[in-house]
Amino acid sequence: MVTISIGVPAYNEEGNIGKLLGALCEQRFDEGVVLEGVVVVASGCTDRTVAIVEGFCRDHDKIKVITEDKKSGKARAINYFMECVDSDILVLESADTIPCEGAINELVKPFCDGCVGLVGGRPVPVNSDRSIVGFAVHLIWELHHEIASVSPKAGECIAFKNIFDSMPTDTATDEACLEAMIKASGYKLHYSPDAVFHNKGPETISDLIKQRVRIHIGHIHLAHVHSYRPSTAGNIPKIKYILKKMKRHPSKVPLILAAVFVEGYSMASARIKFYVLGKNPYNWETVSTTKDLDKR
Fold first, then answer.
1. Domain ranges of the chain
2. Which residue, among 284, 153, 155, 104, has the nearest Cα to 207 in the 3D structure?
3. pLDDT at residue 285 in the model
4. R_g over Cα of the chain
5. What 3-state class would DSSP assign to 72?
């Protein structure tokens, strides 16, 4: 028998938390997999997030909520989750995502191989790809899918062996940090493309840049602290994918180049913020346009 617990770090997620918990309650698992509980860690919420979760708690004895008085970073919220569960496998579900049917089960399946320490799922954005920003969002996640299919990586939703007491709280890319810790412990990574989770990318250029800068700073910090770079941090796989995309879709070249420019600008800004200004946004400002998957 394999036991699992699902952790959901949340900050002002009233637009999506109810839909997420509803989808988690409908997940079904293979025989021998037991869901012990779903833990929402609500950090400094000032909206209806806690009230919505408490409503689910009254109807579902496996759902519980932990509240923080103030927002202190996603990694710290993950540590609260890790402290209160002892399941074999821990699942992290971003509060602004929704799992498709069977997604959590697909995350757990690969652990039948005892060498697997972390499994990443496949985020699929709900944004329209007709705008420059929407196209860039889809391009980024398609790129991640292509790279992860060859070199597995962590993403928006992951499952990992419960072998740590805590994780560092100064990381802005928590999943990638856990990925580094798992590999350092001698386990391998696995990518499950059938574990599909819907998410929503930013809807404005400024929000997209804000999100990408934060992620790139997290990767730079991870390289300094753990001497580790996730597979999507390398430039060669990105260039190969972009060239292939332009060859297959010549009519999309202007949109592809616009997305490349935004990514390049974000990478340059991240280096300036980290190396010159000493910024490490581990307790980052949320991107509001990603929070309600019904609004596209």
1. 2-290
2. 284
3. 65
4. 18
5. coil
Which of 84, 142, 87 has its CA nearest to residue 111? 87
Instruction: Provide the 3-class DSSP secondary structure of residue 125.
Output: strand
Q: Cβ–Cβ contacts within 10 Å for residue 233, how many?
A: 21
- Measured distance CA(282)–CA(152) in Å, rounded: 24
Return the exposure string of 145-175: e unless at least 16 CB atoms fall within 10 Å of the residue's CB, then b. bbbbeeebbbbbbbbbbeeeeebbbebbbbb
Q: Is 136 helix (H, G, I), strand (E, B) or coil?
A: helix
Task: Please give the Cα distance from 133 to 261 (Å, whole number).
Answer: 12
CA 50 – CA 88 distance, rounded (Å): 27
pLDDT in tens, 33-88: 999 999 999 999 999 999 999 999 999 999 999 999 998 889 999 999 999 999 99
**Residue 259 to residue 249: CA distance in whole angstroms:** 14
CATH classification for the domain delimited by 2-290, as one of 3.40.190.10, 3.90.550.10, 1.20.120.450, 3.30.70.930: 3.90.550.10
DSSP reduced 3-state for 3? strand
Cα separation of the two ends of the chain: 41
Q: What is the DSSP string of 7-70?
A: EEEESS-TTTHHHHHHHHHT----TTEEEEEEEEEEES--SSHHHHHHHHHHH-TTEEEEEESS
Say yes or no to pLDDT of 296 above 60.
no
Length of the chain: 296
Which amino acid does the sequence have at 253? V
Contact (CB, 8 A) for 279 and 210 = no
**Global model pTM greater than 0.85:** yes
DSSP 100: P
